[in-house]
Amino acid sequence: MVASPAGAAGSPSSEDGGASPSTISAASPLASTTMAAAEPFAPPQAALQVLAGENDTSRSEAIASRCSSRGNSGGSDAAASSSGGRTSIAHMLQPQGAQQTSLMVAVRSRPVLVEEQLRGVRKDILRVMEEKMVVILDPDDEKGYLDRQLHRSKERRYTFDHALSKTATNQDVYEHTAKDLIGGVLSGHNGTVFAYGATGSGKTYTMVGEQADPGMMLLSLVDIFDNIRELSADYDFEVTCSYLEVYNELIYDLLVKNSASLELREDPEKGAIAVGLKKIEVKNTDNVMDLLREGNSRRKTEPTEANAVSSRSHAVLEIGVRRSSR
């Protein structure tokens, strides 16, 4: 999964395989954040999800960077304090810990599924250590203790900015990744959250989630609308939503029934855009979730060994936030 304040992030990927991207943008006056999930050419047995984030503060305020700004409190609008003893917007939008780097990568493991156990998968060979390291153990059950000690070089160790074990909830993932992007989005910077993993690794679960464990999309939106309410005395906000999928290198609008493929063009100010992509104004998280349900019903899916309704496309949700002073 990728969480990033980036200058030109959010361009649709053309790789084959399931993906679940989402973008959230906000600016002073305009900015955006992108959330996505993509499937790599990696062995599914690893069952890992990678999350990353990047920052680019080189663009002007009007065309703010594509995620939250790492190490930047935003433009002059963001630095203005609200009156009447209210919390200043500069304080509310101050970058947090994860925003001190331009790119953050986290990995999440999941438990062995019941379906996998029925297929004979009995051993969990993945360990998370010290919240930063993932260890892949030697899967050979036939070896004795001494032999395993002599051949420990077959273990593989990988270090990330953050590693989450199979007991982590979507809220845990959000707290360590996407949450720090929200302040940047509201201060006029773009952000991207990108989930990357093999089929069945849990990308869609992490991004969309379920009622008891909502994913990155909903958790980010809740924070965005909560912050908007706190800032509404001094600012007017307009929030828009678009939802597209990339399937066989063609772009389709998931908010339009029987959408024709859309043309991708380069805009001198906005960067890559899908021409004719529908954008809908939303007032709350319920509005966005209704659109997500509508769009997900139109996604291309097919059964795989790992998932009976596996997504065969990359989906990108983009939330745009426009802010103006009262």
Automatic annotation (TrEMBL):
GO terms for biological process: microtubule-based movement. Keywords: ATP-binding, Motor protein, Nucleotide-binding. Gene3D superfamilies: Kinesin motor domain. Residues 1-26, 52-87 are annotated as: Disordered. InterPro entries: Kinesin-like_fam, Kinesin_motor_dom, Kinesin_motor_dom_sf, P-loop_NTPase. It holds the Pfam family Kinesin. Residues 102-326 form the Kinesin motor domain. GO terms for molecular function: ATP binding; microtubule binding; microtubule motor activity. Residues 1-22, 65-87 have a biased composition (Low complexity). PANTHER family: CENTROMERE PROTEIN E, KINESIN-LIKE PROTEIN. Belongs to the TRAFAC class myosin-kinesin ATPase superfamily. Kinesin family. This is Kinesin motor domain-containing protein.
